[in-house]
Design goal:
single chain; 118 residues; alpha/beta; 5-stranded parallel beta sheet; 4 helices
Length: 118
């Protein structure tokens, strides 16, 4: 099964990115066979892909969660025009996150069995 998760909100301030990544991590942990998980970061969510995030002890860290998803076979891409609009397109991203395009998102959407948005 192919599942596409699209995140639109900033990594902190709301819990949408956190909940999307919790779901992604659980899907990867509990459904290791025949699961292809794809995650697309759009709008303010592209800032989730910036490395060296520092959060207070006891708080969730989106960078660590993205690294888990990538480390367990999830594909993560960030919208290039969204990154450019926020001035981060030329900054280094978390290893394994690629800058991508709307065309790629459309292709992933057509190929997905399920699309979830946060």
């Amino acid at each position: 099964m192919k599942i596409l998760i699209i995140i639109n909100d900033a990594p902190y301030g709301t819990e949408k990115a956190y909940n999307a990544l919790r779901m992604a991590m659980t899907l990867l942990k509990e459904n290791t066979e025949n699961l292809e998980l794809r995650l697309f970061l759009m709008a303010d969510a592209v800032t989730s892909a910036l490395p060296n995030q520092s959060t207070p002890q006891g708080y969730y860290n989106i960078e660590r969660m993205l690294k888990y998803v990538i480390g367990h076979g999830g594909l993560v891409k960030a919208c290039g025009s969204c990154a450019e609009a926020r001035g981060i397109k030329s900054l280094p991203l978390i290893e394994g996150v690629e800058v991508s395009t709307m065309s790629q998102l459309c292709q992933w959407t057509v190929e997905a069995d399920k699309v979830l948005t946060f």
